[in-house]
Design goal:
The protein is an all-alpha fold and 143 residues long. It is built from 4 helices and no strands.
């Protein structure tokens, strides 16, 4: 009997050792809109046309994202143009109003008004140029 116990304990030890060698943890990571091809083919085994459905979903999502980006760019361009136009109109109106006030005999108020219009225009354009430069630099840093 003692021989059997030794035999069993050796057998148990070998079994545990074999199990420890065979059992492992498998971990996979991927990034991007699509899983690797091996995983896609496994989807076909689980869901009929699973891989094709995932591909269609990714294509639709990409198209949707591009449409949103185009809309955002178009809106930003339009808003930028409108801002420039309105700033120009306000600046011209302020300078012309300052000139009219000077002609009416009020030189100091007219000069202040006209100067404020010019300073406002110049400062807005300088600020806008700096902001765009900073945005381009931050986007370049991200890439």
């Amino acid at each position: 009997m003692p021989k059997n116990k030794n035999h069993l304990s050796q057998s148990d030890a070998l079994s545990k050792q074999a199990v420890q060698q065979v059992v492992g943890i498998v971990e996979q990571h991927f990034s991007g809109p699509l899983p690797p091809p091996q995983v896609l083919s496994q989807y076909d085994e689980i869901i009929p046309n699973g891989a094709e459905r995932i591909m269609v979903m990714a294509e639709k999502q990409g198209e949707h994202r591009r449409t949103l980006e185009k809309t955002a760019l178009d809106t930003d361009s339009r808003n930028s143009l409108l801002g420039v136009i309105f700033a120009f109109v306000i600046g011209i109106v302020t300078v012309v109003t300052g000139a009219i006030v000077i002609i009416k005999g009020h030189s100091w108020p007219g000069t202040l008004l006209g100067s404020a219009g010019l300073i406002g225009l110049v400062s807005v354009f300088i600020y806008g140029t700096q902001q765009k430069r900073q945005e381009r630099k931050s986007k370049a840093d991200e890439n």
